[in-house]
From TrEMBL:
The keyword NAD does not apply. It comes from Haloferax sulfurifontis. This is NADP-dependent oxidoreductase domain-containing protein. GO terms for molecular function: oxidoreductase activity, acting on the CH-OH group of donors, NAD or NADP as acceptor. Belongs to the aldo/keto reductase family. Residues 146-186 are annotated as: Disordered.
Length: 186
């Protein structure tokens, strides 16, 4: 992929489902920093630590599963519908607006023309800080979509480990994110 990038055949490299320690590993051992990391992000799994890490390294956070695949009754959730009623918007529109205000890219899936149009109709209102805070309280801190699968636990629990790894790797990123030699294998 890096060769294609260097040749100008692709403009960017993105990753999906990379926890911060894997992103850091990728940055340390490669020349091209990913432009985007698409990770499960929705009101019930907000990934605030991951978002801070991605922001710190100028990597765009993209949400997959912004509607939590309908889990927790998201489209009828009292908190989201109450906020939506204030703006004459649906719970889905509130979720999309919440992601936009967090500077997280979302590409919601729908095959229904009316829902596709509704998903675009999120730029004529803005959630106030109290509403953003109320939504932040919905965070359960773990995946709802990959429950029971390896690697699908709260990243917050391993934040200190990742921060320590990030700090120890920074010397390899000095002067324009240079490549460090990979460790010797035994």
């Amino acid at each position: 992929m890096e060769e294609l990038h260097e040749e100008g055949k692709i403009r960017a490299i993105g990753v999906s489902n990379f926890h911060p320690d894997r992103v850091m590993d990728l940055m340390v051992h490669n020349d091209v920093v990913p432009a985007v990391n698409q990770i499960e992000t929705h009101p019930f799994y907000q990934r605030t630590d991951d978002a801070a890490f991605l922001d710190e390294h100028d990597i765009q956070h993209e949400s997959w599963g912004p509607f939590a695949e309908g889990q927790n009754n998201i489209f009828e959730h009292d908190v989201l519908t109450t906020i939506g009623d204030r703006y004459d918007k649906s719970a889905a529109q509130v979720v999309l607006r919440w992601l936009i205000q967090r500077e997280i890219v979302a590409i919601p899936k729908s095959v229904h023309d009316e829902r596709i149009a509704e998903n675009f109709d999120v730029f004529d209102f803005e959630l106030i800080s109290a509403e953003m805070e109320t939504i932040s309280e919905l965070d359960e801190g773990e995946s709802m979509l990959g429950a029971g699968l390896p690697g699908h636990q709260s990243c917050a629990s391993s934040y200190d480990r990742r921060r320590d790894a990030r700090n120890s790797c920074k010397r390899g990123l000095v002067a324009g994110r240079t490549r460090r030699s990979p460790p010797e294998r035994a």
